[in-house]
From TrEMBL:
SMART domains: FHA (SM00240). Transmembrane segments: none annotated. GO terms for molecular function: RNA binding. The keyword RNA-binding applies. Residues 23-72 form the FHA domain. InterPro entries: Cell_Proc_Reg/RNA_Proc, FHA_dom, SMAD_FHA_dom_sf. PANTHER family: NUCLEAR INHIBITOR OF PROTEIN PHOSPHATASE-1. This is FHA domain-containing protein. Keywords: RNA-binding. CDD domains: FHA. Pfam families: FHA (PF00498).
């Protein structure tokens, strides 16, 4: 069973198991996760769980909702995603089976995805998609910043190929020579914000 760990200034405030189809989050006392802070709306966000996984939805809050430092309206949660609501951080954690595969809803996702897609989320090309059909796909702006996304064994990895500035995944500069990519990761390359999605 998945759970949400709520922290404030690095201190754990509460842990809530996701044991029903909708978990509501907000300042009002009727929410499943109550966060009594002025930066949090009365009914701020919700986590909806289906057979396809758990999704966080912003419910028209005043200050918005982010996942891994990226503003979202609806986002498919992955293990260890961090949701920012006001001044609070909510970490989504999934249980693991004995083989270590992460269980999401009723689906156990293992092996190389059948289809991997990059979708641009900002700028003039927002909404455009690129299917990663080649063993290696290069993305970026030559002379400024370029990355290569490659199929390796049962996963996709991203490597920094060119540019002084380090590309980012989920708002953080990559630190590994080959950064493993997960479904829903946000990639920043040469000022372009993209999201990678997998279909199994």
């Amino acid at each position: 069973m998945a759970k949400i760990i709520v922290t404030f200034n690095g201190l754990i405030q509460q842990e809530v198991s996701i044991n029903k189809s909708r978990i509501t989050i907000g300042r009002r006392s009727g929410n499943d996760i109550v966060i009594d802070h002025l930066t949090v709306s009365g009914q701020h966000a919700a986590i909806d769980t289906t057979s396809n996984g758990s999704f966080v939805l912003d419910l028209g809050s005043t200050n918005g909702t982010t996942v891994n430092n990226q503003p979202v309206k609806k986002h498919l949660l992955q293990n260890d995603d961090v949701i920012d609501i006001g001044k609070y951080k909510l970490r989504y954690q999934q249980e693991k089976n004995t083989q270590g595969s992460v269980i999401s809803g009723n689906i156990v996702q293992t092996g190389l995805p059948a289809v991997a897609t990059i979708r641009v989320v900002n700028g003039a090309n927002a909404g455009k998609e690129l299917i990663l059909s080649k063993p290696v796909t290069t993305i970026g702006n030559p002379g400024i910043q370029v990355v290569a996304i490659a199929k390796q064994a049962d996963q996709y990895v991203m490597k920094h190929v060119e540019g002084a500035e380090t590309p980012k995944v989920n708002g953080k500069p990559i630190s590994d020579p080959a950064q493993i990519l997960r479904h829903g990761d946000m990639i920043d390359v040469a000022g372009i914000h993209m999201q990678i999605t997998f279909k199994y």
